[in-house]
Amino acid sequence: METYIQQLKQFLTDEKEKLTDLALDVANAKNDYKLAKAKAIYSTQLARVSGIEDTLNMALKVEEKGLTSK
Question: Which residues form a coiled coil (predicted)?
Answer without folding.
Answer: 12-39
